[in-house]
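User: Predict Glycoprotease 1's structure from this.
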Amino acid sequence: MLGIETSCDDTAAAVVRGDGEILSQVVSSQEDLLVRWGGVAPKMAEEAHSLAIDQVVQKALDDANVSENDLSAVAVTVGPGLSLCLRVGVHKARKIAKSFRLPIVGVHHMEAHALVSRLVNKDLDFPFLALLISGGHNLLVLAHGLGQYVQLGTTIDDAIGEAYDKSARWLGLDMRKGGGPALEQLALEGDPNAVKFSVPMRQHKDCNFSYAGLKTQVRLAIESRNISTDDIPISSATKDDRQIRANIAASFQRVAVLHLEERCQRAVEWALKMEPSIKYFLLKVVSGGVASNQYVRTHLNQIAEKNGLQLVCPPPKLCTDNGVMIAWTGIEHFIAGRFDDPPAVDEPDDMQYDLRPRWPLGEEYSEGRSASRSMKTARVHPSLTSMIQGSVH
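Assistant:
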């Protein structure tokens, strides 16, 4: 299976065999663009994908020592993501599928993040509970089976990674290796109880996440202590100034992760009520603010152990957006008979594809529907789960 991924800012492709052997993995990153524009600029990202896609796919095939004729099918991310970026990958996948008469598997980006762990951990059977943490999103899902998910909790404003990154920037930390690692490092020097931050959303008995308020508390704590973090980076701070910043970092981290723990504990209880046979709690941190954060991992491991579950964390090289997860998810669905026929030979090159920029993974759990959700009114696709349940495959 060839897997192609262009949902956001990395152009990625990989070739994976049905037994899970990774034959190749190629990623072209847009890091320099991100630095230049201070984030993802969709038009620029689309252009970068368009320039990189042919080479990335060709290199994945060459490294795997296969040609298009050796493939069973092509898997490609169709959502969620930025539609301008998704289009580049889908266009390339359809072009290959059309030329070589190959079936296509449209893949859900977040499902792929969850399922790639099954490539690494052959024991990770359904059902399992998954917490997916990406730069702008936190998602708690119960995976009943392939393509069958119940959403237990999601982000209602800012995700934890974003809160780490913003707080690190406000504290004047060195952002080159990312805000999360810098903040975790500084927090080791601080007193986690020095600043009394309040834990978000304690009055809401659901599993949703909210970090906007905590971010505001951090900003106010910095302002009220009259430390000039804008002009004075942490490397030039006085001893006392550094201690104040370390205390804020440690206090922030304690409360940020406590919020995560409380939501996860409730999600574990809900999940075990629905699926008492669950053995695994999957933690997948998709790059961004809290990637490879030991403090987060340790605390979630405690939640898992307390509930008799095993915490599963995939290796860091499979945690960024990558083609392997798309190829592997494609394999799982292909084996289950879920794929589209090769595109018609006369399909025009400028065809409008079915892209799903806003595409939920599963249906919301009834107890998890929260009055605090500010549902955006933009068109949202029916969830992957409901689409699969409604199909006749």
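The chain is about 40% helix and 15% strand.
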